[in-house]
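User: structure tokens for DUF192 domain-containing protein, please.
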Amino acid sequence: MADLDQPVRVEVAATPASRQRGLMQREFLAPYTGMLFRFDPPVSGAQGFYMYRTLIPLDIAFLDTDGRILALRTMTPCESRDPRRCRVYRPGTDYAAALEVNAGFFRRHQVATGDRIRPAQEGRCTPK
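Assistant: Done. Predicted tokens:
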């Protein structure tokens, strides 16, 4: 069960363009911030995330339509200039959203598969 002392403020990536850009080229992600990727309809578990042109290591939580965490992954930056050579991080099951935060965040706050991410207010998420 998550042990979180404050909500996570998120940018929402709901359009194809914003989802494609994600957190690329960011040199820093403040504590308790992240990016929430929404998909309507949900996407196949074979579709994943990669770290092409992403400079900082990230944790990702793949979520169902109710905000339940289906899978957690820690992603490391890809150093290749060819996106096809970057590792793809997949949940192995269909998902409706994904939340990216700084690497190690979920472990530090005891966020686990099965926990639920819920909106606390507009633009914030709270594991519960």
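User: Anything notable?

Assistant: The helical segments are 16-21, 105-108.
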